[in-house]
Amino acid sequence: MEELNSPIHHEISWSKAHKYFKTPAMNLMKSKIEKLKLMYTMIRYSGSYSQKIVETFFDKYLGHHKIVRWRDGLPIYSSFVPPIWSDASAHLMGATFFGLVADKQIPFQMNVAVTDICNAQCSHCSFYNGIHDENRTMLSKNEYKWLISQAQSIGISHIGFVWWEPLMSEDFFEILADVDTKKSITTLFTNGYFLEENVERLNKLWLTTIAVSLDSPDLHMHEKLRVLPWLKERLIRGIEKARKYNFNLVLSVCLFEGNYFHFSRYMELARKMGFHEVLLLPAIPTWRLKNKPLKVSISGGRALKKMVDKYNQNCDYPPIYHYSWISSSASLWCQGGKKYIYISPYGDLLHCDFASKSYGNLKDDTLSDLLFGNKKLCGF
């Protein structure tokens, strides 16, 4: 007893005390203390640590980490990526981790053509598989719905409705209604002609993003290039109405020789009209542009990248999704057939919207069989 009450005993630290008191109670107490320390450390550092991970990822992916906007309390770094910490983002991350474990390339984005007709006649259109073919049958409404279900079960977290003009499809709204918004975000790519009269309907169906094409910062010239009378007025009214709702609004710009050097004017227009993001696409030398490649020098491309970086660092302007940079070696390379796929209105699976080779048809096989059973498809 005298030894226990001696000064030496009181100098024994807690780290050494367990040598003298190896009891279940003491072990349990030590375990709880370790857990509390871990919880405290996680709370203290997780916020800044998570932020650094997110910012580093988007710096590598987009070339910037400027927030497009806040929606439903969550930050959006790009309209084409689910908001961080959203249900759709968790769906994306879960599918990505599963793909790593299963050694599968699981696409995160799927563009779907819901019609093969368009009201515009763009001379620079390079879209390949949208040409109406009377000898082929389009997917039925139920086949489109089955496609959406398959895509979401696989792990696709972004579904885009594209080319030619989705709002001319009688079935589009029913197909959109079948998307589980807890698993995928949705984007409508449109020329805006029928936007005004459909805004409320799109809002009720929880559409995430509206991407409007613009071929010239001069809206009169844009109307001429599209060969679509009254487009200017209808486009402006549609965008103004859409701004009253919670959509992500994207200005989609296809760069070709006629508009390449008007980039600054596009950015001014995007700022004034209230767009949240600018999608910058290169002209693809297919179909009407097959023998008319965009003639841009290497120095011209570098100059454009510098301008993009300048605007992405300026909070007064919307962020830019610079597709040419993202599909380069500096970012992801081309992800066609890997993280991105396209489904034609006839059910063909292709690398992307502008590809010419089909890797199977959904009328004959399931999406999973086409993706993971087709060794010829790039990335699988």
Describe the structure.
The protein has 380 residues and is α/β, with parallel strands linked by helices. The chain has 2 domains: 18-61; 75-372, TIM Barrel (Alpha-Beta Barrel), CATH 3.20.20.70. It is built from 13 helices and 11 strands. The chain has helices at residues 7-10, 14-17, 24-62, 87-102, 141-154, 172-177, 199-204, 219-226, 231-242, 263-273, 298-312, 323-326, 367-372, and strands spanning 69-71, 74-76, 109-113, 158-162, 185-190, 209-213, 248-255, 277-282, 320-322, 340-343, 349-350. A 9-stranded mixed sheet has the order 9-8-7-6-5-4-3-10-11. Helix 7 (199-204) links the parallel strand 5 and strand 6. The chain is globular. The N and C termini lie far apart (74 Å). The relative contact order is 0.13. Residues 1-12 have low confidence and may be disordered.
